[in-house]
Amino acid sequence: MIIKLNEYNLQREIARLGVHPASCGIFAAKSKILPLKLTQVRTPAANILKQEMLAAGGDCAVPGSCILNETKYVDAVLLGTVKHYRILARKLAQMPFFGLAQVREELQKFLATQQPVTLLADGRQLTYEKLRIMGILNVTPDSFYSSSRVGADVVAKAEQMLADGADILDIGGESTRPGSNAVSVEKEISRVVPAVEAVKKALPQSIISIDTYHAATAQAAFNAGADIINDVTALTGDEAMAQVAAAAKVPVVLMHMRGTPKTMQQNCEYDDVVTEVAAYLKQRAQALSELGISADKIILDPGIGFAKNTEQNLELLQGLDALTAFGYPVLLAASRKTVIGQTLGNLPPQERLEGTIALSCAAVYAGANMVRVHDVKENIRAVRMLEAVLCR
Fold first, then answer.
1. What is the pLDDT of residues 111-124, one digit of tens each?
2. Residue extent(s) of CATH 3.30.1370 domains in the chain
3. Residue 337 a catalytic site member
4. Catalytic choice (372, 381, 384, 392)
5. CB contact at 8 A, 49 and 75
6. What would be the CATH architecture of the domain defined by 30-112?
7. For domain 117-390, which architecture applies?
8. Catalytic pick from 336, 337, 384, 392?
9. Distance separating alpha carbons of residues 323 and 257, to the nearest angstrom
10. Residue 316: count of CB within 10 angstroms of its CB
11. pTM value?
């Protein structure tokens, strides 16, 4: 009888054979093909990578024109296990030409990537041995999902979310739904600061993120007790935001978006949405590191629904793994969004719970670290059940 194994039960089955414990990790490194896409590789380098991957026992997909050197740069897809990539990295150490030194450097970073950690300004840490849950509290009158809107009941809502298992509470004072109008900083502050103060007073150990792209709002929220910036513009919407974040030593969520919420759905042109979103977020993280915002202060969000149509959102969800190899925590914020409604037959926001839960489970499979959701209890139960099955 032949029994098919998978990546989740392989090590347990190998251990049951009675092999030496040290061998389990060695077998694991040989067990799973990890496809890696390389962008803008010099054509001679692509040919070398093809040869070396074949020699190591893996493979490398390159354009058919590559052998003729018809273009200066090409993309390539490596197909190998961790073992194959370690062999390739050793071989590339002897080849400091055609840009292969940079390929080796990135490959080594990929192989060395460990579970990320987020460090709060007060010294507390968010670790990601399980998927973290961010609950949404909108102190706005016009959020696309009416049940997420809170007012005087913000503390009660916050208490319930924490009781249901939320790790972070995300408070926002301006709707960023497609086509929405901006509100003044003064109005935003008047909405979020009382909410942050009330929640922190009642629940002093809670972790609060402030959903804003205005530096003044972020600063006022920090003064009231907020712990994290959740910025839909990846800290580009207000030139002072990066300095405010660095000075406060708070983590930041960098989200991909084009234009503004008012205009973003007019900016949905991509050649390769997964690669372009990943490249943008990596560039923003690197740029912020030069301003003193270290890796343990950065979280990446692909921006589902922001300057993407339904097909692009689905492609980005399918390619979520692309962000998880950079070493930063990855947040998926897709709760009850239009992509779910359109995919399931134009369902309204109040009927998109099941689709949201499916995407939260997909986040687990992709290796994401956090989901931002309206319905904490339902999502956390589904996710914890899935994790129990996969991590036995």
1. 988 789 999 999 99
2. 30-112
3. yes
4. 372
5. no
6. 2-Layer Sandwich (3.30)
7. Alpha-Beta Barrel (3.20)
8. 337
9. 15
10. 26
11. 0.92
